[in-house]
Amino acid sequence: MKITENEVRYIAGLANLNLTDEEIHRFRADLDEILTHIDKLNELDLTGVEPMAQVLYEAEETATLREDTEVQPLGEALALENAPLPGAGYFKVPKVIER
Fold first, then answer.
1. DSSP state at residue 15
2. Which of 55, 64, 71, 81 is 20–30 Å from 92 (CA)?
3. 12-60: pLDDT as tens digits
4. 50-74 burial string, b = 16+ CB within 10 Å, else e?
5. Quick one: DSSP state of residue 92?
6. Domains of the chain
7. SS3 content of the chain, % helix, strand, coil (to 5)
């Protein structure tokens, strides 16, 4: 066992989730399987394999990325035009996280 139920409760608390005991048990098993799989991946011999920063790095001709084009920004006034409660150049929203 790589992860305990207390660790799952701690992670759920960080994510502001209220989990039942059944969900905690299920997530502990799921996370344990994920960590076991990561351990298997860490056993791979990657000698001579260069790290990749971009999957399409070597595929210049077949890359499906669009060309960057410069566009005029939306602007503060236009962005806030339909806001239900704009104020001081920002969107005002109700507080959603209570602790």
1. T
2. 71
3. 999 999 999 999 999 999 999 999 999 999 999 999 988 877 665 565 6
4. eeeeeeeeeeeeeeeeeeeeeeeee
5. -
6. 5-42 (1.10.20)
7. 35, 5, 60
